[in-house]
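Attaching the record inline, Q. Sequence:
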Amino acid sequence: MGVSRRQRSALLIAALFPLSLSLFPRAALSASTGFDPGIGNVPQGTQTDLAYAGSFTWNRVSNVFVTSQQVSCYRPEVVTKAGEVACPGATTGEDTGGSAPKSTYPNQGGSRSGYPAAGPMLATDHSESDIRVDPTNPQHLIGSSKWFSSAEGYNHVLGFYESFDGGKTWPTMGHVPGYEGFTDNTDPVGAFDAWGNYYQALLPYQFFYAASGYKKYEPGNEPNPGIPNEAVAVAVRKHGASGANDWTTYNKPPDYVFTTNAGLGQEPDKEWIAIDRTIRFDGRKNYNRVYMMYVNFNGNGSKPYVQTARAFQDGTHSEWTSQLQLPNQNSTNNDTYLLPQVDPNGVVYTPMINYDSEQGGCCVDVLMDYSTDGGVTWKGPSVAATDVHVPPLTGAGYINTTFEDGIEETSVVGNHLVNRHYPVYIAYESKSMGFGNILLTATYDQGKTWTAPIQVNDNMTNVDEFQPNLAVAPDGTVSVNFYDRRLACPAAGTKEAAAAGLALDGVNPNYFGSQPLPPYGFSNYCINSSIQFYKPNLTPIGHNIRLTAHTWR
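Structure, as predicted:
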């Protein structure tokens, strides 16, 4: 909501290269004075824009358009009258919610007069994507993202899409049922348990539009008083489920982890989920333990919390434990962006961003907490990086841009022992140069020490790179994905420019260049997605690879 509802970086799929292991962390050089440490230290060296542009073809990358393969519709709780399109006929097989005066969604039964919408609306836009691989079948993938009935009004639910052939086709998709009675469902992220049951984390909340057209968050005046004002919640898709409606929350009470009706002063946000799928020799004490983390904006900053449950083979789980606050650096600062990960020993780690009030809001500390006993007690925080310059929380974070940035860090645990511990990798954004760069560091001793940071992006000219995401392959290969603005926008009159929709980009209050809009041929404006591979000790494997076939805006 407002500042605290910010875009999550998209997860990208790419083939991972087999390689041999090197078990000693590599030291990195210090950065120039005034820049965040690691800026300019690019171990693989820079590459030309021409080489980067051709890396898509040379590495045989392939793309599949997923959400355009089906027509999805749902009946929203609130209509903005700005951008909604009546459902032309869903092809997904999902429950589209029926038409007035009766709704078929159970949790819309308590809606006030005038809600929900009179009928189903088309899901027209998508953002904030996440994708997960079934541990019982690597060909089975489930992704999720926000599905908008009105991008102009920021009105959306969570949608999912499912593949059974490693991402080549996506025959099953639709909105995640059970939470349609909320105005919005946001922050999609999922996790599989060891049996192949898929847990979708959700952050549903309520607002309404005043006569002026502005959003209003007023406890007691929500469109749907029959459900909470805000919640942290899950929906479970059991192993072997088929069809868009086959979720355990469908036609059943929603699965709430945390709820509040307090409005401002109690605002949960940035939820994330992880499940311990490790089998160990301790009686499998924490086997299939579900970790749900989130922050709560309580009127005096935001505080980090965790709650856990035990997943069962039939797709159910135990009751959620009570809310537990994680160790943080300063009780008066904002803490956010918790991304739990579990190593092969069952140790759960989470990074955390702490906004350093002493730095006037320019900078953050990148921290890490961990637990060895299933989340009962926590150690930390360990400091991975200090006083990192980040884009502003509001307004234009980047040159020529009106969009807000996303989560500023990403983390993943390795699966090959180094110094008797599994590595923890953290990548984060830096804007100390005035342009965005991606930095990467690792700990091989549970946070006692961290490697000197290195710069991930290898562009030769200064442009903005942002929103990193980390992953580790079964052989230990580390990958960092990020958004990349090094390639100029397509030229006027080209098929690429038409496909990117540049002709529609005619108004931008933050663009002050000498050329008029649309942005044909503009630099540091259009976007690609990139990936960089590393060995477990962060020795780079080649250069950045372009993942998108077409530059977009």
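The longest strand covers residues 137-150. The chain has a mean pLDDT of 88.

More tomorrow.
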